[in-house]
Write a structure and sequence with these properties.
The complex is a heterodimer of chains A (about 400) and B (about 170). Chain A has 13 helices and two strands. Chain A has about 400 residues and is mainly α. A two-stranded antiparallel ribbon of chain A has the order 1-2. In chain A, helix 3 (about 65-75) crosses helix 10 (about 245-270) and helix 4 packs antiparallel against helix 5. Chain A is globular and about 60 Å long. Chain B has about 170 residues and is an all-alpha fold. Chain B is globular, with a radius of gyration of 21 Å. In chain B, about 15% of the residues are buried. The chains are: A mainly alpha (about 400), B mainly alpha (about 170). At the A-B interface, helix 5 and helix 6 of A face helix 2 and helix 3 of B.
Chain lengths: ~400, ~170
C-alpha cells in the first residue's frame, strides 16, 4: 500500500492519497480473490479425476480449462431463489459476511518484502480475529434458510470452528514466541537464509509436529474434507448452503476456496519461509525479485495437499471430530507451547544440528509418513477385496 | 469536521444503532445478530484510538467466541428462536427512574474523570507493552482472573455432567 501511496501525486491531500491507495489495493486483492477460485475449482476437479483414475473436465476449452468459467457464468445467470419462510435480509447478508471474513485476511499476507497491503503489527492475531466473522455468517446462513439441514450444518460448523481455533492458536503461539512479534513480515524475515532456517525445520523433532497441528486445525477451520461434517452430503444434503443457489451459492464457494488459500498461505508464511526461496540463489533473477512466486508456489502446493487429503481420507464422524480437537490436538498443542517456550529460552538460535540435520530428517519423516499411508491404504483395499470375495 | 471525527460518528452510529436493535428487536435471533454489529463497531472505536491489539481481541473473543456460543444456545434451545418476545410494560415509573439515575451516574463519572489525554498521537505498537504489563505489574490480577474463569469452567462442567448411577 505504501508503494501505491508513493505513486500518487504528492500535491493531493493526504486522505485522498490514503483512500486511493487503499482502494487500489482492495481492487487488486478482490479481483485476484474472486478469479482465483476459477483456477482452484478446475485444479480440484482435475486432482479428483487423477485420484479416481478419471480424466476430469475436458470438453470446454483445451483440457477443459474453461469448464469452471462456464460454471461460474451459469451460476451468475441463475435465478436467486428465496425459500419459503426464509428470512430474506439475513439470507442475503450471510454469504456477504462469509466472503468478507475470508477476504479480510488478505490485508496482511506478505507476498514480498514490499508486496503487502498493510503490515499490521498484530498481523497473525488479525488473521485469526477476522476469520470469526465467517463463523457468524455461516450460522446466519443456516438459520435464515428455514431448513433443518441447513441449521444442523451451521451448528456443526460453528462447533467445529470454535473447537479447532484453540489448537490453531496454540501452534501460532509457538511461532510468536520464537519470533517475538505478531507481524507476518517479521515472521518471514526471521526465516532468512534458505531452506535450513525455515521454521518447519527448527528444533528438529518439534516444529514439524507444530506444523501438522496447525495445518490440521486450519483444514478443519475451512470445513474441508476430512473435516467437512458441516456439509456432509450423506447426512445433511449440503449443510448450511442447502438452500442457496445462483450467485449466493457462488459466494460461498468463493469463500471456501479463498479460506483454503489463506490457510495455505499463512502456513507457508509461518513454517515454509513465506516469500523466501529454498536457496538464497533462487531469490531473484537479475533484478526481478521472485518473492511472490515463491509464496504462491508454496501456498498452491499446500492447497494441492488439501485436495489430496480430501480425496484420500474418509470423512470423520461428529464425535470423532470433537475427540480429535479436544483430546488429541489440544493436549499436543499445550505441550508444544510449554516445550517451545523453554527451548526459546535455552536455545534462542535453535539446536546446533538444525542447519544440517533438521531439514533432511524432516523431509525424510514426511516421506516415511507418506509411504506408510500409502501402504495402509493399499492394505485396506486389498483386505476389502478379500472380504468381498 | 475532520476525517477522524467523521469516522468516529459513523462508528458510534453503528454501535448505538445496532445496540438499540439488540434491545428492541422482537425476535431473540435478531437481537443476537445485531450484537455482531455492536461488537464490530466497538472494535472500530478501539482501532480509531490506536488500540489495535484490543480491537482484534474484541473481534476474536466477542464475535468469534461469545456471540457464536450465544447463537448456539439460542438455536439449540427448543422453540426459543421463533418465540415472540412481546413483554408487557410493567413498572413503568420505577424503570424510568432507575434508568435516568444510572445514566446520570455514568454521565457524571465520564464528565468528571480527569482522562489522560496523551499527546494526540496513536501509540506505535501496543502488543509488547500489554504483554509486559500482564506478565509484570498486573500479574496477580491477571492470574486471579484466569483462576476465576477456570473455576467457572469447572463449575459448568460439573453441573452438566450426568450423575453416575451409584
Amino acid at each position: 500500500m505504501d508503494f501505491i501511496y508513493g505513486l500518487l501525486p504528492a500535491d493531493l491531500p493526504t486522505w485522498v492519497r490514503v483512500l486511493g491507495a487503499g482502494i487500489a489495493c482492495a481492487v487488486i486483492g478482490v479481483t485476484a480473490m474472486a478469479l482465483g477460485p476459477l483456477l482452484y475449482v478446475y485444479a480440484e476437479t482435475k486432482v479428483a479425476g487423477f485420484m479416481q483414475d478419471r480424466i476430469g473436465p475436458k470438453r470446454v476449452g483445451p483440457h477443459g480449462l474453461l469448464q469452471t468459467v462456464a460454471d461460474a457464468v451459469k451460476l451468475l445467470f441463475k435465478e436467486a431463489i428465496y425459500p419459503a419462510g426464509a428470512d430474506k435480509k439475513l439470507f442475503i447478508l450471510a454469504p456477504c459476511l462469509v466472503v468478507v471474513g475470508a477476504f479480510l485476511s488478505f490485508v496482511v499476507l506478505p507476498f514480498g518484502s514490499r508486496m503487502q497491503a498493510v503490515d499490521l503489527n498484530i498481523g497473525l492475531f488479525y488473521v485469526v480475529a477476522v476469520s470469526s466473522l465467517s463463523t457468524v455468517g455461516l450460522i446466519m446462513a443456516g438459520w435464515a434458510s428455514n431448513n433443518k439441514y441447513a441449521l444442523f450444518g451451521a451448528m456443526r460448523s460453528a462447533a467445529q470452528i470454535v473447537s479447532y481455533e484453540i489448537p490453531a492458536m496454540m501452534s501460532l503461539l509457538t511461532i510468536v514466541m520464537i519470533v517475538g512479534s505478531l507481524s507476518l513480515q517479521e515472521v518471514v524475515w526471521a526465516q532468512q537464509g534458505g531452506l535450513q532456517s525455515w521454521f518447519l525445520f527448527r528444533f528438529f523433532p518439534i516444529m514439524p509436529v507444530v506444523a501438522i497441528v496447525f495445518f490440521t486445525a486450519g483444514l478443519a477451520e475451512c470445513n474441508r474434507a476430512p473435516f467437512d461434517i458441516p456439509e456432509a452430503e450423506s447426512e445433511l444434503v449440503a449443510g448450511f448452503h442447502t438452500e442457496y443457489s445462483g450467485f449466493f451459492f457462488a459466494m460461498f464457494f468463493m469463500a471456501e476456496y479463498t479460506e483454503m488459500l489463506v490457510i495455505s498461505a499463512v502456513t507457508s508464511v509461518l513454517f515454509l519461509g513465506g516469500w523466501w526461496a529454498p536457496h538464497p540463489a533462487l531469490q531473484q533473477i537479475g533484478s526481478v525479485g521472485l518473492g511472490p512466486f515463491w509464496l504462491i508456489a508454496k501456498a498452491w502446493f499446500l492447497m494441492f495437499v488439501m485436495m489430496w487429503l480430501r480425496w484420500t481420507l474418509p470423512r470423520l464422524r461428529v464425535d470423532q471430530l470433537m475427540y480429535v480437537a479436544w483430546k488429541v490436538l489440544l493436549p499436543i498443542g499445550l505441550t508444544l507451547v510449554v516445550l517451545v517456550g523453554g527451548l526459546v529460552l535455552w536455545f534462542p538460535d535453535g539446536f546446533a544440528w538444525d542447519g544440517w540435520v533438521g531439514w533432511p530428517l524432516t523431509l525424510a519423516l514426511f516421506g516415511f509418513l507418506f509411504v506408510v499411508m500409502q501402504r495402509a491404504i493399499r492394505w485396506s483395499r486389498k483386505r476389502a477385496v478379500e472380504m468381498a470375495a | 469536521m475532520n476525517a477522524e471525527a467523521a469516522v468516529f460518528y459513523v462508528l458510534a452510529a453503528i454501535t448505538v444503532g445496532s445496540a438499540a436493535v439488540v434491545v428492541l428487536a422482537r425476535s431473540l435471533i435478531y437481537s443476537a445478530f445485531a450484537l455482531l454489529f455492536t461488537f464490530v463497531g466497538v472494535a472500530g472505536l478501539y482501532l480509531l484510538l490506536g488500540a489495535d491489539f484490543l480491537a482484534a481481541t474484541q473481534l476474536l473473543i466477542y464475535v468469534g467466541g461469545i456471540l457464536v456460543l450465544l447463537l448456539f444456545g439460542v438455536m439449540l434451545t427448543h422453540k426459543l428462536y421463533d418465540l415472540d418476545l412481546r413483554s408487557e410494560v410493567t413498572q413503568f415509573l420505577p424503570g424510568v427512574i432507575v434508568s435516568i439515575g444510572l445514566f446520570a451516574v455514568l454521565a457524571l463519572t465520564a464528565w468528571r474523570t480527569d482522562w489522560a489525554g496523551g499527546d494526540g498521537r496513536a501509540p506505535a505498537a501496543t502488543t509488547r507493552e500489554i504483554g509486559q504489563l500482564f506478565m509484570g505489574r498486573y500479574l496477580l490480577p491477571f492470574e486471579a482472573a484466569s483462576i476465576l474463569l477456570l473455576v467457572a469452567l469447572m463449575g459448568a462442567a460439573m453441573i452438566v455432567r450426568r450423575k453416575r448411577s451409584a
